[in-house]
Design brief:
This protein is α+β, with helices and mostly antiparallel strands. The protein contains ten helices and nine strands. Strands 1-2-9-4-7 form a five-stranded antiparallel sheet, with helices on one face. A four-stranded antiparallel sheet has the order 3-8-5-6, with no helix packed on it. The radius of gyration is 21 Å and the shape is globular. Pfam families: AraC_binding (PF02311), HTH_18 (PF12833).
């Protein structure tokens, strides 16, 4: 059975997430028209690039610049890895920078696990399809990996707020159950999404997508206490499915929605 998955969204052009799980498959010499940001999850991967042969055990990062020729194969019976592809032409809009990254200097740099963790979080949001959360995780990951390994200077926080964060909070309060795009929020206040996230986090302690989830959980409690069915609450508040609703509710309350309602009715 083919366990490989290539994930993309029509509203997020130039960005793909590849989850590879294979045995014995080899990739001939090729290149990508995108930056590749990956992590080995299981087994040992291998490739030839920049005149050298590389072996990548689990936990290793794999970074590659656009149009960089390389091969690819598994050094172990089974290889599982996750790889994000971002077209170079999309970086100005995504990063909101005048000066773009110079490119990855090292193919397999040392890292403390934050890049791999960011990839895992992004993969989850790709599966769930929450636009606000997905865009937020993508921007955070790109900023992290390019500052650490791609020659990008760390952004200085914007000092001016001008009522922007309060306006966004009110908007999220009014549209908490809707699918909200980060790009749309930026357009509302004429700010790049990256600056918007930073300003909102400084004002309220969490980024916009977390604030929206907290607001959904607050409303979920009210509806559950009114006796609404779990599935109806999940669907009505914009959750991907029942499992997503359960996970988010437990993350913020410590109990599942069913447990919360049962205890309230006891």
């Amino acid at each position: 059975m083919d366990a490989n998955r290539l994930l993309a969204k029509s509203w997020l052009p130039g960005v793909e997430l590849f989850h590879a799980d294979f045995s014995g498959q080899a990739f001939g010499r090729h290149s990508h028209d995108a930056f590749a940001i990956g992590a080995i999850l299981q087994g040992v991967g291998g490739y030839q690039c920049r005149g050298q042969r590389h072996a990548l055990p689990a936990g290793t990062l794999s970074l590659m610049n656009p149009e960089e020729p390389h091969t690819g194969h598994a050094e172990s019976p089974r290889l599982v890895y996750r790889m994000l592809y971002v077209e170079e032409s999309r970086l100005p809009a995504l990063l909101g920078r005048k000066r773009l990254p110079s490119g990855f200097r090292a193919l397999n740099p040392d890292d403390d696990g934050r890049v791999a963790a960011g990839l895992a979080q992004l993969a989850g949001e790709f599966e769930r399809g929450d636009a606000l959360a997905l865009e937020s995780e993508l921007l955070a990951l790109l900023e992290l990996v390019f500052v650490r390994h791609g020659g990008l200077r760390e952004a200085r926080p914007a000092c001016r707020d001008g009522g922007v964060t309060a306006y966004l909070r009110d908007y999220l309060e009014a549209h908490y159950a809707e699918a909200v795009r980060l790009e749309h929020l930026g357009a509302l206040v004429q700010r790049h999404p990256r600056h918007l996230i930073d300003a909102f986090r400084r004002a309220y302690g969490v980024p916009p997508h977390t604030y929206q989830l907290q607001r959904r959980v607050r409303e979920a409690k009210r509806r559950l206490l009114q006796g609404q069915a779990l599935a109806d609450v999940a669907l009505g508040l914009g959750f991907y499915d029942q499992a997503h609703f359960n996970g988010v509710f437990r993350r913020f309350t410590g109990v599942t929605p069913g447990r919360f309602r049962a205890l309230a009715q006891a």
